[in-house]
Amino acid sequence: MNERIATMDVVALGSGAAAIAISGDVTAACEQDLMAAHEQATDDGAKTIVLDFHGMDYMNSGGIGMLVTLLVRGQRRQQRIAAVGLTEHYRQIFQLTRLDEAILLFDSTDQALAGTAG
To answer: In angstroms, rounded to a whole number, what is the distance separating the alpha carbons of residues 118 and 38?
Structure first.
């Protein structure tokens, strides 16, 4: 299988928030890159992490597992985790796996910031 390598770009959003823009295929193979991006955002003082999936092409069960690992790391740091840019298909997967109970889903980054404030 020739999968597209995922990229993780950290974008400071101000007010203790950061986005991780995720592009490509989200599989267990990109775990190190996602965790490094999370560390960068955390080191920059982010208490809210917005996972931006607008550039994601594909996610498999390994990618879901990696998000659970990220969620645990975020909870240990008292961070709020939100997601934007999921297609309807991946929103359904988040709902079926109940991941949407821990990672709040929003339509936009502005909505995510408003919905996680506090």
So the answer is: 21
